[in-house]
Design brief:
globular; 0% strand; single chain
Length: 124
């Protein structure tokens, strides 16, 4: 049972980080939303749904959600939720490697602090 739990947590974390990176990539491809009139927003929505990264990101988010629900059916929230802190590491690494964003040392330190805090919560 522990192997299944670890595997599902890994799937959940990877899917969540992939979702964040893919949707961010799609929005960079679409461009900044500056016009908030209904017709312009509908055009933006149309561009979003025609962008493959957006569909992949939504699919990854669905995988994350259903994996999270599955985990909650047999493992407590106090065990599952702290494990989600690993998403910060993967999403930040994905932003740096895939999206070519500059991630400062200070930001990496913040990510490490969040993970350390969640680790403290999980062992208490």
């Amino acid at each position: 049972m522990i192997g299944l739990t670890i595997g599902l947590i890994a799937l959940m974390v990877i899917a969540d980080a992939a979702s964040d990176v893919l949707v961010a990539r799609a929005m960079k491809q679409i461009g900044e939303v500056t016009n908030f009139r209904p017709r312009a927003l509908l055009k933006t929505l149309g561009r979003m749904f025609r962008t493959p990264s957006f569909g992949a990101g939504i699919s990854a988010a669905a995988i994350h959600f259903f994996t999270f629900l599955t985990l909650l059916s047999f493992v407590g929230l106090s065990y599952v939720f702290p494990a989600t802190a690993l998403v910060y590491v993967l999403a930040t690494a994905g932003a740096q490697v895939i999206l070519k964003e500059h991630v400062s040392l200070r930001r990496w330190a913040g990510v490490c602090l969040v993970c350390a805090g969640m680790l403290l919560v999980s062992v208490s």
